[in-house]
Amino acid sequence: MSHGVNLVLYVPNIPTITFLGLFVASSWPRYRILRALDTGQYNLEISNSELSDDSLYECQATEAALRSRRAKLNVLIPPEDPVVEGTPELLLMAGSPHNLTCVTRGAKPAAHIQWTKNGVPVDGAYHSTEVLPDRKRVTSRSYLPITPVDTDSSSNFTCVASNPAVPMGKRATVTLNVHHPPTVTLSIEPRSVLEGERVTFTCQATANPPIMGYRWAKGGVLLEGARESVFVTTADHSFFTEPVSCQVFNAVGNTNVSILVDVHFGPILVVEPRPVTVDADSDVTLNCKWSGNPPLTLTWTKKGSSMVLSNNNQLHLKSVSQVDAGQYVCKAIVPRIGVGETEVTLTVNGPPIISSDPVQYAVRGERGEIKCYIASTPPPDKIVWAWKENVWEKEKGTLMERYTVEQSKPPFQGGAVLSTLTINNVMESDFHSPYNCTAWNSFGPGTMIITLEETAEFVTIHSPVFLHLSGVGSRGQQPKQGGPDFPLPCHLGQLLQGKPKAFPRQLRDIVPPVCPGSSFRTPPSRTCLENLTILTRCPSHLNWLLSMWRSSGSTLSPSQMTETSCPISKGEPSHPAEKTNFGRLYLRSCSFSHYPKLVTMGEGRNVNQPVNPELYLYH
Fold first, then answer.
1. pTM of the predicted model over 0.70
2. Could you tell me the domains of the chain?
3. Which residues does 177 contact at the CB level (< 8 Å), separation at least 6?
């Protein structure tokens, strides 16, 4: 359109010709006929072609009754400049679908529309056309569906409209402004820490519009005062299971990112085992759960045994009996970090179990006790003592004046019942009868026969010299000065030679050597023995001490001890613990000249204050 057009007609061998168009030329000033008679050409020239010129044309030679073939004049019209809706900058939300729309009007033929993103062709558009009222021109529309992301911000989308009139096309561009909540990356340094070490969290974020602030939380609980992009704290085991989160917000939204810390920590009890009480032949499951990092190793054992029963959180026991009752240990080991353990009690209902010593001791003329330790679940309904012609049951029957029975629940027996038969002024006949202790509960009876044996003497060590108690309650302690009395059987000679006889239960593990650094097979030092006063009538005691004296290298001989320096005397001892109804033989060192000049016994003493510690061996 707007260009000149020549329609060429060539008519050979006809000297005269008339064009129909000549008759209308005056009505169409843009039309004119150009004749070249010598060549027989008759051309129709149309200047400044218009859409109305788009038609069929025919040349007629009326005198010769001739007509040309029809010629079609196709007037091309370029599209108007395309328009992209939202130009020049289109505000979109990230993640929200949108159709980019490009419109170009009045093209003939219809324009072809192509999209590019930052100069790169984009497919996926769909199109529509609309024919204008002149039935020749067309309006074209193109729609490009997009779902913008945050990185699309500032991207340029261009639509190019072209047809044969403008092969290079016409362009329209729109720039995207994509608003989005913050995009967040949360990092931690160092990646792995020991419990108690410091750790740094860094929250890196981009946003459009700009970031307005930060919030930090741990395990879903807001951390007050943490408002910057970096958070520094000390890690404990909770950081292993409770994530730290960074929340970044701007005008259009917020983003929350979390991370767990690889904290290395020792075992922590998560599920504590609960005591279980069952009947015999029942199946039992004990539960125990530990947490630790690195992954822990879990073992179940019975207390007092090293046999591993399970390596799982649960310990399954089949058809338990009373033998299975007791404490079970759930132990967790975190390699190179630490160890934790807990205990749980399994109680198996059954008849009472009596665990007393079958042989117990008493001194004639003294007060004696026979103890019956009864472990029973459920508790015993009835406890009966029987000996000679005597039968005792609580609230039933009577006993001779010399006999009494008491019941208690000593804590060291784990809640068991202790029934004690006390005999006042033990007689010869008391050693000749077995003592039957029987207890009943709903599952049946339990019984034990106890024998009472006579012991002639007891030994009490009461001395300011060092005593090393290697038994219950004192294991691993350093020797200490003084202390309480410790009654032992008269068979000290056998005991000191490594051949102990049985003696009272509560002292089974108490074995005090006479001197520090000595044992039953190692002689005591000279210094120790030179600071002893001996009171005894048990020959084995004296003989052993005198033999130890000889082996110590003392300058004093036993004869000097017994006859010269330490005369034998009779009389009442000064120490209250010695006062009994029996006579005594004293062996006492009377000469201070035999004591060392410097005595060290746990406390510093003046060299001019010799100490006369005593070892009492008495009935």
1. no
2. 5-73 (no CATH), 79-260 (2.60.40.10), 264-345 (2.60.40.10), 353-454 (2.60.40.10), 458-616 (no CATH)
3. 89, 90, 91, 92, 153, 154, 208
